[in-house]
Design brief:
The complex is a heterodimer of chains A (154) and B (307). Helices cover 13% and strands 38% of the residues of chain A. By secondary structure, chain A is mainly beta. Chain A folds into two domains: 96 residues, Alpha-Beta Plaits (2-Layer Sandwich), CATH 3.30.70.140; 51 residues, Aspartate carbamoyltransferase regulatory subunit, C-terminal domain (SH3 type barrels, Roll), CATH 2.30.30.20. Chain B has 307 residues and is α/β, with parallel strands linked by helices. In chain B, the strands form two sheets. Chain B has a five-stranded parallel β-sheet, with helices on one face. In chain B, strands 2-1-3-4 form a four-stranded parallel β-sheet, sandwiched between helices. The radius of gyration of chain B is 20 Å and the shape is globular. Classes of the chains: A mainly beta (154), B alpha/beta (307).
């Protein structure tokens, strides 16, 4: 029943990008990281939808815009389960999971108040130091480490 | 960025560590080699530290180089609101090497990104202090005849003590065995125990600074338990004297045992240990000069061993 409603609420795309299987709690962070506030095209955001894999999931559909891989991978830290579908003429032409790049520049804030990045006008940089069982990132400057779910988005 | 910078001990390989130790050995024999003639070093101390600054400045002076800089950030333009980047860029125009201490963590790493002049990190907040690690390694090598297969006991504040963390990581090349002696509040953090496991390094954790522990150690590395680290003052009172080393405790220890301490000490080593030949902490501080001469010449691409 709920699935049928979802289908009604969120129309299929002719062309664009669908990001599925986003943890519900990460949907709005993903919106922010991808800069969807400034997107001139139709954007559909779904949250707390039923999911067999996650229990509850979010979905973002952006019509008429195909994101670069590097841009989409920016959300991998907060939404490691996300799956990207590239749509052309109502068909999925590419489907792939997001992956966290080895270095994350300018997305995450270091919460160490004594870190240089919080005291100089400069971009933050984090290196991925572990991927299993959970992603761990380390500040390039002060060496504080965070799990992907603790990471504070700028 | 200059590849001869030294920001963290983790940045350099085993061969580079051994090269630095060889240089330190050379400088112990030839402390007054005038090989920095015509070179200018900057010592930028955004956070005061008399001991480290004097050691670096002595190192430069004994090698015949000249020094500019400041020892009190109140006299630098950072009080006018200048960014670290601008200060480093400005000083880079004048000097061949920059030795810096900063109260912010990661300051030295950032400095390497904005200049081609080699940067030596003389301490960045609670983060890294690689010249201390080099003098610790040199002290261990000198007193034990090598760095391989040693039992190193670390005592006191193993949670916040950056010197023990850096030493632990640098020792990974030399098949050490560690004994961590600390109260639960100041125990070795999990990430360093994970590091040992990943590197196949054997370690034991205990709260008991027992004769058994002391008698199997080649090196005892004492650290200061700082009152300000404790949330509960009662807990501080309970543990502060648990890890005090007295001369009588060394009775059954190995003949080659040496006691190290990064200094300053407060109560953790009783004064009655000072006259024991196994007390090495004052010589250890002296080794800092040679270790820093080694680091400076490496950064400037000058090799005294090739003369």
């Amino acid at each position: 029943m709920s699935n049928e409603k979802k289908e009604l609420a969120v129309a299929a795309l002719r062309r664009g990008t669908v990001i599925d299987h986003i943890p519900s709690s990460a949907v709005f962070k993903a919106v922010k990281i991808l800069g969807l506030e400034d997107m001139p095209h139709a954007v559909t955001i779904g949250c707390n939808l039923a999911s067999k894999k996650l229990g509850s999931k979010g979905i973002i559909k952006v019509s008429e815009h195909i994101f670069d891989k590097a841009d989409l991978d920016r959300i991998a830290l907060i939404a490691p389960t996300a799956v990207v579908n590239i749509i052309e003429d109502y068909n999925v032409v590419e489907k792939r999971p997001v992956s966290v790049p080895d270095t994350i520049t300018g997305i995450v804030r270091c919460t160490n108040p004594k870190c240089i990045t919080n005291n100089e006008p400069m971009a933050t940089k984090f290196d991925v130091v572990a991927r299993e069982p959970e992603i761990r990132i380390r500040c390039r400057y002060c060496n504080h480490t965070y799990t992907g779910s603790d990471a504070k988005i700028l | 960025m200059c590849s001869k910078s030294l920001v963290s001990i983790e940045d350099i390989s085993k061969d580079e560590i051994l090269d630095l130790l060889e240089r330190a050995r050379y400088f112990e024999q030839h402390p007054n080699s005038k090989i920095l003639d015509g070179k200018v070093a900057a010592t930028l101390f955004f956070e005061p530290s008399t001991r480290t600054r004097l050691s670096f400045e002595t190192a430069v002076n004994r090698l015949g180089g000249r020094i500019i800089g400041f020892s009190d950030p109140g006299t630098s333009s950072s009080v006018k609101g200048e960014t670290l980047k601008d200060t480093i860029k400005m000083v880079s125009n004048y000097t061949d090497i920059i030795i810096m201490r900063h109260f912010l963590e990661g300051a030295a790493r950032y400095a390497t990104e904005v200049t081609d002049v080699p940067i030596i990190n003389a301490g960045d907040g609670a983060n890294q202090h690689p010249s201390q690690t080099m003098l610790d390694l040199y002290s261990i090598m000198k007193t034990q005849g090598g760095l391989e297969n040693l039992t190193i006991t670390m005592v006191g504040d193993l949670k916040y003590g950056r010197t023990v963390h850096s030493l632990l990581m640098a020792m990974k090349y030399f098949n050490p065995r560690f004994i961590f002696v600390a109260s639960k509040e100041l125990a070795m953090p999990q990430e360093y125990k994970d590091f040992c496991r990943a590197e196949g390094i054997e370690y034991i954790e205990t709260e008991d600074f027992s004769p058994e522990v002391i008698n199997q150690s080649d090196i005892i590395y004492m650290t200061r338990v700082q009152r300000e680290r404790f949330t509960d003052p009662m807990e501080y009172e309970r543990v502060k004297d648990l890890y005090t080393l007295h001369n009588a405790m060394l009775e059954g220890s190995k003949p080659n045992l040496r006691i190290l301490h990064p200094l300053p000490r407060v109560n953790e080593i009783d004064r009655d240990v000072d006259d024991n030949p196994k007390a090495y902490y004052f010589d250890q501080a002296r080794n800092g000069l040679f270790a820093r001469q080694a680091i400076i010449t490496r950064a400037l691409g000058i090799n005294p061993l090739e003369k």
